Amino acid sequence: MTELLSEAARDAVLGPLFANGWTLVEGRDAITKTFEFKSFVDAFGWMSRAALWAEKWDHHPEWRNVYNRVEVVLTTHDVDGISSLDAKLARKMDTL
Fold first, then answer.
1. 72: closest CA among 87, 84, 57, 56?
2. C-alpha closest to that of 29 among 89, 86, 79, 81
3. 0.85 exceeded by pTM
4. Which of 9, 21, 25, 83 has the largest count of CB atoms under 10 Å?
């Protein structure tokens, strides 16, 4: 079972993500980042690769694609906030 990140864990887990461009979503316990690519095909290809990991981990992002940009929001609905799954998927998205 996934759990909400504790206050102590949040700094350690989220700090590296913030350093890599992720930010907190105002008004809710979630993180967000906008990824930019050279073209729509590159953006869509990245989304396809990210979708495979999201499905494997049964943790699906909220995202929106407009041409060469993909706006991602990660939160764990089961715990109504940020969990280790969000950080795991964010790290994977950053490496794709």
1. 87
2. 81
3. yes
4. 83
